[in-house]
Amino acid sequence: MSAAASLETGHQRTILLLALAAFSSAASMRACDAMLPALAHEFGATPGQAARTISAFAMSYGLTQMFYGPLGDRYGKLRVVALAVAAGVLASIGAMLSGSIGSLLAFRVVGGALAAAIIPLSMAWIGDQIAYEHRQPTLARFMMGQMCGVIGGQFVGGLFADHLSWRWTFGFLAVTYALSAATLWRRALGVHHGDSAGAAAHAGAAPSASRYRHQIAQIARGAWPRVIFATVCLEGFAVFGALAFVPLHLHHRFGVSLTLAGIAPGAFGVGGLAYASVARRMVAGVGEVGLVRLGGLLLLLGLGGLALGGSWILAIPESLLMGLGFYMLHNTLQTNATQMAPQSRGTAVSMFASSFFLGQSIGVAIGSAMADQVGTAPLFAVAALLSIALALGFALALERRSRHPQVGSPA
Fold this sequence. Notes:
This protein starts with a helix and ends in an 8-residue tail after the last helix. The protein contains 18 helices and no strands. By secondary structure, the chain is mostly helical.
């Protein structure tokens, strides 16, 4: 086998391991969606109060991004991911054993802070290793782990809440984190791949904390990064601020079990998997602008259908359309984010992820209030309108960008 072929094989194996870690991270994030009624019942809380287990995770996830980006740039992205995955085992066990809603919220905050390292630093590592023209399909393959986590987290959360206890959901997550940690740590130490050795070589010459602050400020001053950060923040606000309440909506409006209520939004992840399987052809066929516009239209149809209601069965194809549309838009945003600052890619991608999950946490918090006060249908309607407006606006920005490419842009 040639050196180039061996390197490519090593990259693919590492991406597979990172996808497994992304599964655990995404499953942790979505695990509480389908169990909100069970949590509310056990702890004597309203559904909106129980939903803080979602927003607390997302808020912690978003706020800690700024910490992991520089850490990954300095000590090696794979090493930081492996450590975070290993610590996620303990956070999941703590959530499983929680005796109060306050204790559960505390472990969700810790879990969010640890999961924060996984997907952004994995994306940044892919950005370091994969050429831009191949990066969007590669990122799509990697994100299949996250998509499966979205499906698995929601389904398993509802299944255990119905038939055993919601606590076993976190036991399941502890096992998946442990499997990820066992394999990733060996890879990060360079047993199978030499990536971490190169990162370690740069550690001694890593810039100071003040230099990192300068990097963050420099990235934030760029007009194009600000467009991407604002877009992904509003995307998280609209899409995931609504998605978290699909199981609650189906359970209360149609009286379906928590297991079935968790299956419907799990179709969101299936839509993402469908996109990942055709990403290369779609990028070649319609381009980034076309993907963004089509994604916005599908989000409008999916969220609008949920707002109108009619049958819980319809929520399955509607959630699938949401997932397909979301990943068309989000994967395009991700790909552009990996190219914003190639010399500080870990920091730039962490800023991107921070914007996304801060938007998500604010969306869930506002969605909680809307769910308690006016119900979930108006929440889905607002999210539908915001999503299409956001997609059309970003498509226009991409068109302008392509006509006036900047230094270092992929155009």
